[in-house]
Design a protein that fits this description.
The chain is of the alpha/beta class. The chain contains seven helices and eleven strands.
Length: 225
Amino acid sequence: MAVKWGILSTANINLKFLAGAREAESVEIIAVASRDRDSARRYAREHSIERPYAGYEALLRDPDVEAVYISLPNALHLPWSVEALEAGKHVLCEKPLARRTADVERAFDTAQRAGRVLMEAFMYRHNPQTRRLVELVEGGAIGRVRMIRAAFSFVTRTASDVRLSAALEGGALMDVGCYCVSAARLLAGEPEQLTAQQALGGDGGCRRPGGGARRRRPLDWARLR
């Protein structure tokens, strides 16, 4: 039996979620919500989704929706995850779930009380290649891990990109740098010591001459035992 899903927002990242969902027999997308009714209707019509909702609360009140995918701007991830859990829905939330440990713990406490699943959408961890990598590292294929060096960056020419908005908890670390942190934790475990440097420019991204924003956050993760 397929799990019935609703989507909070009409963000571009939804296209990847929808593509994967349509390949899975156990997933059925039945609803989408936007702040604007016309936007919700257009999106539902374009992607063959049965129920468009004006407002996220309206979707959460739908008793047929069992789980929600949350692809809102970063600052809205945590509050709407908690709201969805309290409404009795399972939640798959785009990364990052939140900036602060206490907020994340609160969300998972809510999920436990509600008897629902909450997951942060670091999809790469579920890729067979990633699982095989972990097996090789844990099996000693490369010897003892002494250092992990990671860099993940790309150039965007849109300075107003919502992912760069400091007010919405955006920026390079939260957008792509979090993958570097996640991968290091996956392979080396939790850090014993941590130091960091931050380069600021524009509104959450590193500015470059001539416009646009360059986002780069190299991270060296050393854990010597």
